[in-house]
Specification:
CATH architecture of the largest domain: 3-Layer(aba) Sandwich
Helix content: 25-40%
Oligomer: single chain
Largest sheet: 6 strands, mixed
Distance between the termini: 26 Å
Number of domains: 4
CATH superfamily of the largest domain: Alpha-D-Glucose-1,6-Bisphosphate, subunit A, domain 3
Number of helices: 13
Structural class: alpha/beta
Length: 451
């Protein structure tokens, strides 16, 4: 297991460890040492966080020690960055972003020259270089700037030109990386769209808007009598959709609908869909009933992507709205996912709200609690046995994991029970977890709900 990299890059609060200035330089140096090829240039891009430019400069100071040119693509989305990397002859790319996290966070995501997330094994090799590299003298980096946003806009335009003609759509850019790209793309779809979250100031990314805070978008959908609404997260690798009534369409809904549409049109490669353990149990049952093979993996788009590659699957993703459609890109793309979904809805002649009627969702309670450390859950004596006893008692499913990007533990409970009951049960499970960790590690977590 990597010790600096989480499920999606290295994250933290600038400029505290692991995002201390000198350590960032060492990260840049180590990434370049591992991934440098005969190609003598690399791309760096970022979202709208105020710390992004400084982190870019610090990374560049480490990279140029290998006589590699650093080219800054500015503020663009992670998926567009992935596409641009795949079309240019560079060694690798670094996306400076903390995705859906609050503005006080930032992160470092590493992609290979094909635009793919690097493997866990590669991350571990980079970490070995970090740990064995002594302090170096870093000088000022000469960073070139280049605007390649149009490459991605033209690509998406070629896929979805005119599909939303005269449809009223609310588009929430989360004050993030999509604030320039999304409007240009939606112009080309023919939609009549209303923008929110399109005025970033470096401190407001994901604040009161975006894929985790959809209330403003959903209210505007009802106010404008719109066909639907879409909220992207900070780097636009995920989306959450609202139907015409202001009700949420999440990743499970999108995957369920697209999967049966693909199968009907002979587009579901290998008749296989990849989900994570966080998907609602009802999705698994629905897809199996429709004769679709379902593979379940640990949380993280990289796990989904690699499993899709091994099984030649065309679609996979998470309930968070992080969905990968391999025929378009090797990584999740909120913009492409939302347009593909709406294209299929329109071709099917239905309303967006009809999508929620095709499968039965099991009552679900997902809570996240802040913790001060992350001891191995499997090593907590009696914890696994207790969870299995509760699952049997409620005739349901419980899934517990640490976040790979935040200091929280997530508890997901699914059972045909009242939501108040599930909420209370979640807190009881967390209290039991705390008692065990305090005995073994003097853990000082609290019952405070984090997100």
């Amino acid at each position: 297991m990597p010790k600096y990299f989480g499920t999606d890059g290295i994250r933290g609060i600038p400029f505290d460890f692991p995002l201390e200035p000198e350590f960032i330089k060492k990260i840049g140096y180590s990434i370049a040492k591992k991934l440098k090829k005969s190609r003598k240039s690399v791309f760096i891009a970022r979202d709208t966080r105020e710390s992004g430019e400084k982190i870019t400069d610090l990374l560049a100071q480490g990279i140029v020690k290998h006589s590699i040119d650093v080219i800054d693509l500015g503020v663009i989305t992670t998926p567009s960055f992935s596409y641009i990397l795949s079309k240019n002859n560079v060694s690798f790319g670094i996306m400076v972003s903390a995705s859906h996290n609050p503005p006080e966070f930032n992160g470092i995501k590493v992609l290979n020259h094909k635009g793919e997330k690097i493997s866990e094994e590669t991350e571990e090799e980079i970490e070995k270089i970090i740990d064995t590299t002594k302090n170096l003298d870093y000088g000022k980096a000469n960073i070139k700037k280049l605007d390649l946003m149009g490459l991605y806009i033209d690509y998406v335009h070629s896929l979805f030109n005119g599909i939303l003609k005269d449809k009223k759509i609310v588009v929430d850019c989360s004050n993030g990386a999509s604030y320039k790209i999304a409007p240009e793309i939606f112009k080309k779809t023919g939609a009549r769209f209303y923008l929110i979250g399109d005025k970033p100031n470096g401190k407001n990314i994901n604040v009161g808007c975006g894929a985790l805070e959809t209330n403003k978008m959903r209210e505007m959908v009802k106010e404008k009598n719109a066909f639907c609404g879409i909220s992207y997260d900070g780097d636009s690798d995920r989306c959450i959709i609202s139907d015409e009534n202001g009700n949420i369409i999440d990743g499970d809904d999108v995957i369920s609908f697209l999967s049966v549409c693909y199968k009907k049109n002979n587009l579901l490669n290998n008749n296989t869909v990849v989900l994570t353990h966080m998907s609602n149990y009802g999705v698994f049952e629905f897809l199996k009933t429709n004769g679709i093979k379902v593979l379940s993996v640990d949380v993280g788009d990289r796990n989904v992507s690699h499993t899709m590659d091994r099984n030649k699957a065309v679609i996979g993703g998470e309930p968070s709205g992080h969905i990968i459609i391999k025929k378009y890109l090797p990584t999740g793309d909120g913009i492409i996912t939302s347009l593909e979904f709406l294209s299929c809805v329109i071709k099917s002649g239905i309303k967006v709200s009809d999508v929620k009627k095709i499968w039965r969702r099991f009552p679900s309670n997902l809570r996240s609690y802040r913790v001060s450390s992350k001891p191995d859950i499997k090593a907590l004596k009696g914890f696994d046995k207790k969870i299995k006893e509760i699952e049997k008692e409620i005739n349901g499913r419980i899934f517990i994991r640490y976040s790979g990007t935040e200091p929280v533990i997530r508890i997901l409970i699914e059972a045909d029970k009242d939501l108040d009951y599930l909420n209370k049960l979640s807190e009881e499970i967390f209290s039991f977890y705390l008692n065990l960790t305090q005995k073994s590690l003097s853990n000082k977590g609290s019952l405070k709900k984090y997100i």
